[in-house]
Amino acid sequence: MSLPGTARGSGGGAPAAGRPLVFRGGTVLTMDDASTVLRDADVLVVDDRIAGVGQGLAVPDGTEEVDARGGIVMPGMIDTHRHMWQTAMRGYGADWTLTQYFVWYYLEHGRRFRPQDIAAGNRLAAIESLDAGVTTTVDWSHNLHTIDHGEAALEALRSVPGRFVLAYGNIQAGPWEWTADPAVRSLLERLRDDADDRMGVQVAFDVTGDPAFPEKAAFEVARELGIPVTTHAGVWGATNDDGIRLMHENGFMTPETVYVHASTLTRDSYQRIAATGGSISVATESECSAGQGHAPTEQVLQYGIPVSLSMDTSVWWSGDMFSAMRATLNADRMAEHMDAHLRGDTITHLRLRAQQVLAWTTRGGAAALGRDDLGSLQEGKKADVVLVKNDASPVSFPLLNPYGHVVFQAQRGDVHTVVVDGRVVKYDGRLVGIDLAPVRREVEATVEYLRAEIGEEAWEQGMFPERPEAEAEILENPYQYTDYKDESKRAGGEERVLGR
Ligand SMILES: [Zn+2]
């Protein structure tokens, strides 16, 4: 062992593959059980593992060095719910409600997506994840209406050097139907038995609350295969307490189960979730706009439910967990203040802290996926590491409160280096070994195809849904002493000066 390793400042080429790598002199957010923060510290990566965390680490000869001074070294972020195929329609539904989303994808146009369209969205979303420091992404892939769609989704994920979980789903059929398909079962088994721990598997479907509980057969398949279920629960107007009760009464709520949103639920459901050990995936940016219900951050704290964060879909938002953390703190704090104001009270101490949402985004995601080898920077864990550093940015200093800095100051453009499974996939602000040009062409082909299929008028209407009501009327205002639109009144010298 020697000190130092091969020096490497910013601006140089990416560190050579296949050699140990050390981040030198950063502020290290370990996200370990004690929430240890180390200043001027190093993180050593050897092969696919973290081999050391501390100050002045001795490293093997030939170790590549990344200058982390002035930056924050933290675990890779984890998104536990993203419909990656929808990234091919990035930003199209910026002004949608959940109803408009359902109509567009579930009822009208989801079926039009071909296997190559699923692949196009997935590949772009997967690359976007790496770029933003999201090292593990759950692909909540619920439009796999043939097995070819499933294979295409998988191929696209495998073509990108990130960590993914294919959550297999199909909104075009009942979950009791498509889980009975031998081809689907065999793909699920293949994923389950895959030795490559960069690809996980879940079964993704929702429970409507139908008293006949037709989803039971799908749960039985998942249980038989030993694959966790992820489900949109507590979505206003779509899923509710009945679904949770049916799952519980039939013994399908397990510690591996992920409840996405879990917004519009009552105490009874939160207690069933807490008692059975499952976790909630909070997608605050989605919940704020779409209308599933308020992000259940107060409830998860009250009932002691494990939490992870997620972005849901890039048809509205980006796949950027900095946004997820910021939205989650903002929404929780707004609710806390508003509830207090309705009681005539003032909040003097906030309940949810920046450290907590970063923990949800890292170790919370790891726990939700049953991956205790991810989510923190500790010796022996998998080397999924992010360096947030941007010396050219006036927002990069002073670096006082590192948790607050990540959540409220940093953004995806400040992601300097990303390591997944010991491999450098982004360095000095640029993706390594990823060519965007073919990905762009692939997505453009999908957009062109969908646009032609849907037709120009429906395409435009889908993007800019009309508002049925007239523009909001401006209310009469007693302080408006002059009607500026009325020349005759203005000329008459009738103005009064308010407050005097
Ligand atoms: Zn979703």
How would you describe the overall organization of this protein?
By secondary structure, the chain is an alpha/beta fold. The protein has 16 helices and 17 strands. The strands form two sheets. Strands 1, 2, 3, 4, 5, 14, 15, 16 and 17 form a nine-stranded mixed sheet that branches. Strands 6-7-8-9-10-11-12-13 form an eight-stranded parallel sheet. β9 (199-204), α6 (216-225) and β10 form a beta-alpha-beta unit. α2 runs parallel beside α3 (147-158). Zinc ion (ZN) is lined by residues 81, 83, 140, 232, 260, 312.
- Number of discrete helical segments: 16
Low-confidence stretches: 1-11, 492-500
Hetero groups: zinc ion
Largest sheet report: 9 strands, mixed
Classify the secondary structure makeup into a structural class.
alpha/beta
Q: Distance between termini?
A: 79 Å
Shape: globular
What is the percent of helical residues?
25-40%
Give average pLDDT, whole number: 94
Q: What's the Cα radius of gyration?
A: 25 Å
Q: State the total count of DSSP E strands.
A: 17
Strand content: 15-25%
